[in-house]
Amino acid sequence: MVFASPIFLFLFLPLTLAGYFLLGNKYRNLYILLVSLFFYAWGEPFHVGVMLFSILFNYASGLLLHRPCGTPFSGFSKKHILTLTVAGNLLILGYYKYATFLMDNLNRGLTALGLHTIPFEPVSLPLGISFFTFQAMSYVIDVYRHHAPVQKNPLHCGLYIALFPQLIAGPIVRYTQIAAQITSRIVTLPTFSAGIQRFVFGLSKKVLVANPLGRITDIVFACPTDELSVGMAWLGLICYTLQIYYDFSGYSDMAIGLGQMFGFRFPENFDYPYVSRSLREFWRRWHMTLSSWFRDYLYIPLGGNRGSTRRTVLNLWVVFFLCGLWHGAGWTFIVWGIFHGLCLSLERTRLWQLTIPRLWRPLQHLYTLGLVVVGWVFFRSESLPYALKYLACLFGFFLPVTTPHDALLYCDPKTVWTLVLGAVFAVPIVPCVAQKLQNLSEKRRRASSSIFLNTGRYLLLISLFVASAAHLAAGTYNPFIYFRF
Amino acid sequence: MKSSDRMFDILLVLSFLVSLFLPLATLRFEQASVSEKRSLAPFPQWPKNTHEIRVFQTAFEKWFDDHFGGRHRLVQAYHLMSLALGTTGSPRVLLGKDGWLFYTDPEDGNNLDDYRRTDPLTQDDLERWRLVLETKAAWLKSRGIAYFFIVVPNKHTIYPEYYSSRVRVHGVRSRLDQLMDALKDSDVPVLDLRKPFLEAKVLGRLYHKTDTHWNDLGAALAANVIVDKLFSFGLTAGQGHYRVEDFFQRSAEGGDLARMLNLSRILKEHQVPVVRPGVLRCFDHNQDDVLNAEDPELIITSCRSEGKSALIFRDSFFTRLRPFVSEHFRKAVYTMALPEIETLERLVKEYAPDVVLEERVERYLKVLPKAPDPDSEPYRAYLETRVSKATHSTSVPCP
Questions:
Q1: Structure pTM?
Q2: Which three-class secondary structure state does DSSP give residue B355?
Q3: Which of A139, A393, B203, B325 sees the fewest Cβ atoms within 10 Å?
Q4: Which one from A80, A146, A287, A327 is the annotated catalytic residue?
């Protein structure tokens, strides 16, 4: 079940909220866990077992890491248990996410060598497995490191891993960030209201910006490269650049907002990444919970940047190779990860430090955005050859003789508005304006200015919600010219 | 906390909760949607085993999507917002200039690409068209029945000046141009209505702004062209006689394209030419066995005591055209059945018409007719025609 759907918005969410607030504190955790499992099972009726296994496996590992002396498994050191747990998690993730990819490549290699291929049934991917596996691993590692207390209540451990707002697409929450809230949390009128605001902004990002631009992206990236004009290629890439940001950050906003409605405070996941002036800064602003996960559980244990430059570069490459692989089982994702690793290692060279940071600021933004956008071509393309040809199309190296595709055809006024507003709100204008208005209101100390501001905010939120709901409803409208009874 | 902030929070929470619960509280249970012209998804059966769970989930989502309260209002709001931003918000309807709407459903004739000339018929398609039309014509001719293939122009063919300027034409030939080229040296009589329509635009608007179809004036013009053609073959008693004076102007609700946006009551049509009362003297009456499952839309008209009888394969353009054409026949049988050769055989044997008209709107040239069965009577008639043509065209040298 996705957040941006009528069934979630008008059936699941109202019933979940009603049940949650009608129940007493005692049963709320059990209720929200059951609701979360139902939420997951709705889209993945057969894979819910994988998640339940992951919960129990990591819960048991946590208990074993915390066992007193003289109890069973005392022959195993905590390091052994941690190693086995991490290996177990990676095995589950590897089987479901990468087995098909590995077997495809193996069979391709065998075919190239003229050998018989190995028959293999493709494995279907459980929704959100990358997220809940990383979350579960962070819990076990934190318990091992004594950064987090062990959770002895399986229900609470399950709630941490399966909590529906962040289950499918993050943010990746650390156990330490919500351990206290699992046992004790309060929902007040201002926090619930703040949750609504965050959710509505997220919903509108996803529905009003990401989805319409995504439709154009899909059309462009479905075109054969020999039919792609320069205009079409750039249109597709600009749309995708905004789509991926608004889709992902919108989803994170919705998750954070929903969390707030139930009394949870999730970490931020995006901080206007497209205003970055270096790729390093970009990764401090983009999918922050994933980059901090890789930093704390992989990059630093590998030695981080404490060793030689060569070692640091190697660490970066390893981290970003795996980061690419985490995003998807495909060579395009691997190349995207390696590309980012390469750029980040170049940013550590003296040459870079003497040039780019000394440039005029807009040029620094342009440099970063350029690299990010080139990376998105690999991220979005179906195959590496397609990505490389697409890049060539962008710069006019493959001009089609004739093409039925026309960028102008897709640039209707609504799309142009979406692109413009999408670009404008990808920079921190809203918080800046809001802060200025707040300061102005406080300076004047008049009730009228505060009322005026709140009225504007209220109308904006209601308009965004209605517009988003209208867009979702339009997706269900399927008229025919002739009767179909 | 300021009182205005508290008031804001209370108002926002209440509004949000009402917005969430209202569609659930006002669930609608109708089985069909008039504005969408379709049956709504039924409530699914509860799953009896694990394999049915996923099927149930998908079906339940479809049911909920079709039935949540306020859906139609929200759809209207969506399309109104889109129109305010200069588009329709639907991939099936294109907003042209001056409020004109055009049908662009890629799954239903792909008009947009026909306008752009980027979705032409292939050589195989054209050969199929030619074979089928010639088979029908040859077989009907062998039975002494006249046959005409009528192509109704797309709205954009007659009114390209109202098409969106964002849409650029890439190719040269439309599908109809291609077909006419392919039939250049063929015996199939094709009535191409484009030229008379383009010439008659000065008389008044021939198509609706918010509908895919022609209006009464367009239908009357088509009737004049068709009847004149039939008259030249002695198939009707008189010529087409409808004049501009036979029409008056009035306002009307938006047409099928406005309905596709759920805005038929908002996007009204003004100055629609409507035929004056008394001009048409022939009214439909349905056959007794109209509920025949094979052809529920079969209509038979009997308007004169003398004259010829016609079998007419039609699409929705004949809804307006029918009363204008019926007047000229003793009996006219109208069918919405696909004009496949087997159907033609069956209906010809059943109704024994003097003339067969096959009408098709330009966008449906994309939908290819079924190739004839090589063992069928019509195909044999076609082969005989080919043989006799070849015999006549082969010159034998004098001894």
A1: 0.88
A2: strand
A3: B203
A4: A327
